[in-house]
Specification:
Oligomer: single chain
Shape: globular
Helix content: 25-40%
Strand order of the largest sheet: 7-6-8-5-11-12-13-14-15-16
Number of helices: 15
Length: 443
C-alpha cells in the first residue's frame, strides 16, 4: 500500500494515508515524497472527502474509517484494482509470484531491466538498495510487480495477483501459508491457477521445475509458453550450478551446457535460483543473458533481506524478513555458507498470522539447524505451546516474552566475531536499533 501511494503521488495526485503503525523504511519513503501520514483509522482522516479512497486488505468492517466511508458513499477501490486501472492496463507486466523470494526476485528483475536501459516501472514489497525506493512509474512499457497471493480487500477476497494480468509470470515456489485466509494448500493452488488463466497465450510462464505443488497447478491447465528452471544440475531446461560454497559465484546451464557465469554480492543457493528466474524473465523482455550477468555484479540486495546493519563491538548484526520455516532455513543456510564456523545467534519473532496460529510451529524444530543459539520471542499472544517446541528442539534455544530481555541476553552472551541474525516480518519493537546501541555501549 505504501508503494501504491508512491505511484499515485508520482502520477501527480495529492495523496494522504493512515495506518496503525508505519515504520522505516516505508515511513521515510512516504515522508520524502510529501505524503501526509496519519496515525490510526479515524473518520476525520476522510474530512474533507477525498476523490477516492484506496483500501488495503488489513481493513475490515467495523473499522471507524471504513464505516464512515461507506455511510457517506465516498468512492473507494482496492490497491490492486487501482494499480491495474491506473497503471498496469497499458503496460507489459512482469509479475513475480510464489510463497518465498518474491521481493528479492522482483528487485533483481527490476534492476536488470534498469541496467539494460529499459527504465521499468516497479512495485515491490521491499526496498531494493539499488533504487532506494519500493515503487516508481518508469518510462517504458515494462512494469515489474511483486504478485502476492494474499486476498485483495474486505470486499474482494480474490488473491491480489489476479488483478495484474501479467505477460511474463514467474512462479518461484508454492507452499502452504496464510492460514488465516486459506484452509489448505489446494485453496492456494486454485488461486494460482486462476492467475495462470490470465496470462496470454503469447505470454511466458517461468516456473520452478523442482516444485511438485507448482506442477499440480499447471496440470489444471496452461495456455501459455513455459520455461522451467531448476536448482539441480543436469536439468533438461534451465538450471543454476554453484561455483563456490556460498553461491556468490554460479553458472547458468541450458540443456546441460554452460551459457553464462555470474558473480555477485549475494549468497545462498535460493538467491541464485531467484537470479535465474529474473534473468529468464528479462530475456523474455529482450535482455541478453550476458547483460543480465553484468547487472547482477552491481546488484546491491534488498533492505531487510539478510541485510548487514553493521558491526558493533565486533558483533555483526543482520536484519532479515524471514517468517516461514523454509525462509528461516534458507537465510540461515546462506549466512552459514558466508561465515563458515563462526557463531550464529538467531533471534526470531513469530509475527505472521500463520505463525501466530501455530500452523508451522512443529516445522520450527528443524529449520534452525545452522544456528548455534536460537532466541524465540514468545509473547503471551501466541496461540500454541512454546513448551512443546522447547522440549523437542535439538539445539540451544531460549524463549523470552520481552524484547528488552532479548537485548540484554544477546548483549551479555554475544562475542566478538559472532553473527546475530534477527528475523521478523515486522518492526519487532525496534529491536535492531536497541541491539546496536546495547552492543556498542557494552564495556
Amino acid at each position: 500500500m505504501g508503494g501504491i501511494a508512491l505511484l499515485a503521488r508520482q502520477a501527480g495526485n495529492t495523496v494522504t494515508g493512515s495506518d496503525a503503525n508505519v515504520y522505516p523504511p516505508m515511513s521515510t519513503q512516504l515522508q520524502a515524497a510529501g505524503i501526509e501520514l496519519s496515525e490510526g483509522y479515524h473518520a476525520e482522516h476522510l474530512q474533507p472527502a477525498p476523490d477516492q479512497v484506496v483500501i488495503g486488505n488489513v481493513m475490515s468492517r467495523g473499522n471507524p474509517a471504513i464505516e464512515y466511508l461507506l455511510n457517506r458513499n465516498i468512492p473507494y477501490t482496492s490497491g490492486p484494482q487501482w494499480l491495474y486501472e491506473n497503471i498496469l492496463h497499458e503496460r507489459w507486466v512482469l509479475a513475480v509470484s510464489g510463497t518465498h523470494g518474491k521481493t528479492t526476485t522482483a528487485s533483481i528483475l527490476a534492476w536488470i531491466l534498469h541496467y539494460a536501459n529499459l527504465n521499468p516501472g516497479f512495485l515491490i514489497g521491499g526496498v531494493p538498495t539499488n533504487f532506494g525506493l519500493s515503487a516508481r512509474l518508469g518510462e517504458s512499457p515494462f512494469f515489474v510487480v511483486e504478485a502476492d497471493e494474499y486476498d485483495t480487500a474486505f470486499f474482494d477476497k480474490r488473491s491480489k495477483f489476479l488483478h495484474y494480468h501479467p505477460r511474463t509470470l514467474i512462479i518461484n515456489n508454492l507452499e502452504f501459508d496464510h492460514a488465516d485466509i486459506f484452509d489448505d494448500l489446494a485453496a492456494i493452488q486454485k488461486q494460482f491457477h486462476h492467475l495462470i488463466r490470465t496470462v496470454p497465450g503469447e505470454g511466458l510462464i517461468i516456473h520452478n521445475q523442482d516444485d511438485n505443488n507448482i506442477a499440480q497447478v499447471l496440470e489444471m491447465g496452461c495456455w501459455s509458453e513455459r520455461q522451467e528452471f531448476s536448482m539441480q544440475s543436469g536439468s533438461p531446461d534451465w538450471s543454476v550450478n554453484p561455483l563456490n560454497s556460498d553461491s556468490s559465484r554460479f553458472a547458468i546451464h541450458h540443456d546441460g551446457n554452460c551459457v553464462v557465469a555470474c558473480q555477485w554480492g549475494q549468497s545462498g543457493a535460493h538467491n541464485s535460483a531467484n537470479a535465474l528466474a529474473a534473468m529468464l524473465a528479462s530475456r523474455h523482455a529482450g535482455v541478453a543473458l550476458d547483460v543480465s550477468a553484468n547487472a547482477l555484479a552491481e546488484f546491491q540486495g534488498v533492505k531487510r533481506r539478510l541485510e548487514l546493519k553493521g558491526k558493533f563491538n565486533g558483533v555483526a548484526l543482520y536484519d532479515d524478513f524471514a517468517h516461514h520455516p523454509t525462509e528461516i532455513e534458507a537465510s540461515l543456510n546462506a549466512l552459514r555458507a558466508r561465515v563458515g564456523e563462526q557463531r550464529i545467534i538467531a533471534v526470531f519473532e513469530p509475527r505472521s498470522n500463520t505463525m501466530k496460529l501455530g500452523v508451522h510451529a512443529a516445522a520450527l524444530i528443524n529449520c534452525f539447524s545452522k544456528a548455534n543459539e536460537v532466541i524465540l520471542f514468545a509473547p503471551d499472544s501466541l496461540r500454541w505451546s512454546v513448551d512443546e517446541l522447547l522440549a523437542g528442539f535439538p539445539g540451544n534455544i531460549l524463549a523470552l516474552n520481552d524484547i528488552e530481555a532479548i537485548v540484554s541476553h544477546v548483549t551479555a552472551h554475544a562475542r566478538s566475531g559472532d553473527h546475530v541474525l534477527v528475523m521478523s516480518n515486522g518492526g519487532f519493537g525496534g529491536i535492531h536499533e536497541r541491539l546496536a546501541r546495547s552492543l556498542e555501549n557494552r564495556s
